[in-house]
Write a structure and sequence with these properties.
Length: 297
């Protein structure tokens, strides 16, 4: 029988992991952990619930960082005023994580640890260049979220030995905008056919200064279209430029066929339009923050 422990602090949670010698497991929302237990994929001797640890239940905006605690749910993320108004890629991705009952339990940290290449929260974290604070018996360290994915379903974070306590990303500055797009048979109930998160920063002349494009599932891990990002820098984000960025992203992608979702060919065909659409929304928001009109399209 699996023991259930409700940790009151990060220190207590780490002690419980150590006590069980790798046979305990961290749990927050439990939306993935409980399913995996029922399927027999995992069989922990102890579940360590971190949802009552106060510092893990907060979203803070301090200095140059937005910090999201590991026990903050997707519903809380999408309803947070600062995120809803300023970080559209995250707010919109949070709305796509299952139906509302799932969003009220599932957490961003848990979504990242599941390490699925099309996970909405994981893709948004990659688009934001987010970092995760990982704590274990040896101490704490911040690591780029993008570095935490080994292969589908396998994370560099060991939930039997380690805890993600916070996820952070930089406060949007200047003419910065972001957007999210998702295609799937039923938006709230299944993994997507394709999803895309984008962040753009524009210069004083309206040209792209910085770009991040995250796509899934087009590789074994959440994927950044770095060639398309490099192409965009220094260019005005007009329709032709964004369309070409979409074609470049298509050329970088290597999706597989899923019998229950979509073929490789269908996913490849979707990529150019989805990338261009997502970039257009991000560029328009960036232009609005800079108080000059978006490029004519």
């Amino acid at each position: 029988m699996t023991r259930y422990c409700l940790a009151a602090s990060v220190e207590e949670a780490l002690a419980l992991l150590e006590e069980h010698g790798g046979e305990a497991r961290i749990m927050a929302g439990g939306t993935d952990v409980m399913v995996d237990m029922r399927k027999g994929k995992i069989a922990p001797r102890c579940l360590v619930d971190i949802t009552r640890i106060p510092e893990l239940r907060q979203v803070t905006v301090e200095g140059e960082w937005v910090n999201v605690g590991a026990a903050v749910t997707f519903a809380e993320i999408r309803q947070h005023p600062f995120i809803a108004q300023n970080v559209h890629v995250l707010a919109e991705a949070a709305r796509c994580v299952g139906a509302l009952p799932i969003q009220t339990a599932a957490t961003w940290a848990g979504n990242i640890v599941q390490a699925m290449p099309a996970a909405d929260g994981a893709l948004a974290a990659v688009a934001l260049r987010a970092e995760a604070r990982i704590v274990d018996a040896t101490g704490a360290q911040w690591r780029p979220v993008e570095s935490l994915f080994v292969r589908p379903g396998v994370s560099a974070v060991n939930p039997c030995r380690q805890i993600i306590t916070h996820i952070r990303f930089r406060v949007p500055q200047g003419s910065w905008g972001s957007a999210w797009s998702r295609a799937g048979r039923r938006e709230s109930l299944v993994l997507p056919t394709l999803n895309c998160g984008a962040c753009l920063t524009l210069g004083a002349d309206g040209a792209v200064q910085d770009a991040v494009i995250a796509l899934g599932p087009v590789a074994p891990r959440p994927f950044r279209s770095r060639q398309a990002e490099a192409f965009l820098c220094g260019k005005i984000p007009d329709s032709a430029t964004l369309a070409e960025a979409g074609r470049i992203a298509q050329g970088e992608s290597n999706p597989r066929t899923s019998p229950t979702r979509a073929s490789r060919e269908y996913r490849l065909a979707l990529i150019p339009a989805m990338v261009a659409q997502t970039l257009e929304a991000a560029a328009d928001r960036a232009a609005k923050r800079a108080s000059y009109p978006p490029p004519s399209r």
